[in-house]
Amino acid sequence: MQHFSSADWVDFARGLVSSERKTAIEQHLESGCQQCATSSSFWRGVVEVGRRENGFEPPGEAVTAVKSAYRIEKPASRLLEWADLARLVFDSFLQPSPVAVRAAVQTARQLLHQSGPFTIDLRLEPDSARKCVYLTGQIINNENPSEMADGIDVVLLRRGEQIRKTEAAPSGEFCLDYNPAEDLHLFLNIRGLKGIAIALPSMDR
Ligand SMILES: [Zn+2]
Description:
By secondary structure, this protein is of the alpha+beta class. The protein has helices spanning 6-13, 19-30, 34-55, 60-69, 75-82, 99-105, and strands spanning 84-85, 87-91, 109-115, 118-127, 132-141, 152-158, 161-167, 173-178, 184-190, 194-200.
């Protein structure tokens, strides 16, 4: 069975394929190919996030990079090419602290990430009884604190699948909850400005 490439899925999601190609893709999806169904929904999600409101379009060169690189890597990692991977500058779990204090604060983990002028403050609070993690965060524009983007989409992805999606408040604050897992990425689309990706730590203890 001939599968389709990430480049095809990007074009398909953006409505840029020929009608012949579109039919072929649709027939392939209808045949029940799970691999392609996953790729399709992933790229639809990415394109939809980009389209909302101000119509963020990934720069042409990023799309080219996506198309040339997808053969080697999985679609999920392509999203990270559109976005800058934020740098971790603080992790409360890595701070030396007395055992007693550590035990007391162990319920919540604070992470600070930096990407360009933006600081992203995350607080992860695991609820072991409900097997979920509460994530609260805030994105701050250090260069221009009073001026935030028109909107910020917040998307939680796991291996190319969208798990959660929300929108930051005008203050830059957002919150969501999710089941702990490996390979989680938070993707922040600051509309019209940039995309930021953050690798979330697994909360297994
Ligand atoms: Zn397929």
